[in-house]
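hey team, just a heads up i'm posting the complex here instead of the shared drive bc the drive is being weird again. everything in one block, sequence lines first with there labels, then the predicted structure for the whole assembly after. its two chains so it's a bit long, scroll down
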Amino acid sequence: MSPGAVAITGVGCVCAPGNNLPECMESLFRGERNFGAPTRFVSDNAAAFPVFEVADDLASLETRNTPVISRTGMLSLKAAFEAIGDSGLDRESLRSKRVGVCMGTTVGCVMNNETFYRAYLKGQDPDMADITRFLQSNPAAVVAREFDLTGPCQTIVNACSSSTDAIRTGTLWIKSGICDIVLAGGADEMSHVACTGFASLMITDSSPCKPFDRDRKGLNLGEGAAMVVLESEGVRRMRRKGARAFVLGSGASCDAYHLTAPHPDGRGLRRALGEAIASSGVETKEIAFVNAHGTGTQDNDRVESGVLRDMLPGVPFLSTKGYTGHTLGAAGAIEAVFTVACLERGRIPKSAGFSNPDPQLGVSPAEREMEIRGAVAVSESLAFGGHNGVLVLVMGGGPT
Amino acid sequence: MRLLIQGMGVVGGFGCGTDALASALSSGHCAPRNASVKTSQGPLDIAVFFADASRLEEFVNKRSLRRVDHFSKMAILGSYLALQDAGKLEEDRSRMGMIIATGYGAARTTYTLLDSFVLDGETFASPTSFSNSVHNAAVAGVSTLLDITGPGLTVSQFEMSVASALITARCWLEEGSVDSVLFGAVDEYCDVLGYCWHRFFGERATSAHDMDPFNLDLQSAVPGEGASFFVLSRDDGGGSQYGCIENAHLGMVEQYTEGPDGDNTIFFIGADGHRECGAHYKRFLSGHSRTACYTPLYGSLPTGPAFDIAIAALSIKSGKVFPSPVKNKGPGNGADNEGRLPDSGSICCVKISNRGELGTVTLKA
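-- predicted structure starts here --
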């Protein structure tokens, strides 16, 4: 194991496929796609843009956070409860350690409550509860308050790579000795503003998305959250706790090219992927599969497949956004925990939505469920602003 | 690991550039301007420390800025000023990373986007406003203009954003993935923020007044906006006129423990006139003899602590502690009487939220 590896001792996930990670994986391997018209907001054009919502209204989730927090905050807690439970930790044991929280989000940090703003525009006196709720709902702060954690607390707003960057940041906090444990992940709720914004860019698909397919037309939005418990080797050994996986390496970069489009040659992604692989100490032939960003937009899929074709030729890849939709700031973490779960199963599901190879891409994602060979996998994210984030993960093992 | 401050660039209510900030520190005064806030009772005036980013045209062609919003303009200007100050405008930046801390992101553009479809319908939503409203748009804009291709990060943790983001900046330099970090903090005022100020703070928000941050029972905050940027690198022993960032820390105020220099530290208090934070600052101030506060020069904004870091760096450069614009008549009033740096050269910038979250950033000569 690379000396820089950081253990993942717990995972949690909630998104359209399921309310926890086992449910999600069962759903993925059944090939289910739980999409529909948005139910959490009213849209002029709802039928045209299918979304992947979490069915649970989360009303039964018991939290110590008061007053009421946003749905993004509740999704964060849902994933955190599962991950902490999975790690065998509890509130008491967390309080006795140096625990940081690092969360990625997009919607969760934007003060754009529509109900409030419409009333404001009409010259009314809107209820300030909407603003108070926003101020109480910073995702990292919500998790820290819930568990009385007083270590570093950081919410990363790097658009669609936010939670890949959050997991990478968490590993750096562990490696630098700042923290014993970091709860790292991401969360985003379904947002009318985000849906409308992506539609204005004309990069949404009016049918279920088709990542890497010849006929792809764009993305569908989704919502959800995922969390990993990152743990120092010292604490893990003291607890005699096995790891579900290790973050072996990571990389991040800026394209320095355009506000919304990736660099046409994937300049930034190549760098981030190269750094991640180099820092992991693995050879490319050891990589069993790649959980790609794969949004289903023309630009993303062309650039990403070009980089994978050149840098990881022959390595199977898939996009799981055909099952989850694009969950924005949560996407990187959701895909990272899916990657861990696939390594444990030794299989990856088919890349949902793909059926027709695109001759311009030169490579195709997994057309059907397949067995994987090896214990190492890559999860990668590309984002608005030209951010790229890559994680190299390896299957875990016993307590030592 | 210590982070060397190689250069810095600031723009805020006090003006643009470190000279403007030093001038405001020397005069001890900065006057806010009035902004009109739309309320259900009609328009009201509110005092605001506005930042003017027009000097950006010294660095970037005006035409290439036509789709860049005020938030990003402040960030780009701060970045150019910091790189210029560090003598790094012409250097290759492929081994530079970039981090921006912000409390609210591009607030004006967020509401411009909402206007575009709330008023006219979804099909009229502005794609330009949507792209620019995303929190990391400023990092994207700066990195594109300056060809910064290392990692990029935007952190949003309200009042703790600056201390939190500095923790990660240090990790990047420690990890060795970058040789330097362009670190910035940006927040902007917008009409909706002014309206919220009016609703939350009533008369105290809308009447013209001076901030009185050491009067911890009084709501005297005046909203501010601006940007503070720093070029940070590993301390290779070469030193810097601005000193270095020794440490950044987050925690709760009741758990605060003294740094290694103890009483030999001066504390720059980030109290910015919010009464709801007063009790936490009282607790902190009671344990320290030397404090100063400069918020009346730049106003109240989540990323205000970055201005305090700039002021601390200027203090180290000049070898003196600037007088607080408002006298502290309570505990911790020792700084005003002395005007010199502690023997340790240690300055700790302190920010406390209304929930008692504490962020500290310690600089050393």
